[in-house]
Amino acid sequence: MRVVTEYPAASTVDDFHANLAVIRARIDDAARAAGRDPAEVRLLPVSKTVESDRLRNAVAAGCDWFGENKVQEVKRKHGELADTGVKWSVIGHLQTNKAKDVAALADEFQALDSLRVAAALDRRLQTLGRGIDVLVQVNTSSEESKFGLHPDDLAGFLTELAPFSSLRVRGLMTLAALSADAERVRGCFALLRDLRDRARDTDPDLIGPGELSMGMSGDFETAIEQGSTCVRVGQAIFGARATPDSHYWPN
Question: pLDDT value at position 144?
Fold first, then answer.
């Protein structure tokens, strides 16, 4: 197993202050270089595999949101960190039998790509009397290992989401191709932006504010160049992760 070494582990509050300052500065620089307001870009720290004691130090350093791929991790950490008031974004593929946990615990769901999941979430949320912000995941890389809608299916999917009143559609999410080819990665982000723009032109009510969640530790500056409003950064904040991404995005 290849372990990424360019991201040293952060453990103390000072470590997290330093890493967050570096990432925020890079976000700001990328936004300005693209002629954008840095305030338009939200940083979502991705805390998968990071234990709660370290997350407490991240909270003390200023983190008030965490993103998690696996519902069971959200469930455990939500309980362990309940006193901090931190909010949770589920950013990984969701099975319908986990919808009840997301409805009860999450503040945001960024990986909606199934009407069955939408119906299950909506039903649970209606029972709880609450709503949740959602982003629709699109597979812009055409990689079979990635979840998400085919780009051609997005328009119809957005229309079919409209009756689910507890799901507040905020925009779109994607994972770029895992590639050293910068133009291929850039193309994934550009496609998501174009899909958002087309959806706005067709029926802006279906896309909400049109947020774009795209970009991770290795490519977030390119994502910002292409219009990202939320970058999901894990290893550059918390340190290298030994667990391979295939654990989170299985074939």
Answer: 86
Local structure of 67: helix, strand or coil: strand
The CATH number of 13-239, from 3.20.20.10, 3.40.50.1820, 1.10.390.10, 3.30.450.20, is: 3.20.20.10
Which pLDDT belongs to residue 67?
A: 98
* Beta-bridge mates of residue 232: 44
Residue keyed to tokens 């200023």:
62
Q: Which residues contact 162 (CB under 8 A, 6 or more apart)?
A: 206
Q: Contact at 8 Å (CB) between 168 and 155?
A: no
Angstrom distances, CA of residue 235 to CA of 7, 24, 102, 158, 182:
6, 14, 24, 32, 20
Q: Express each pLDDT in 179-232 by its tens digit.
A: 889 999 999 999 999 999 999 999 999 999 999 999 999 999 999 999 999 999
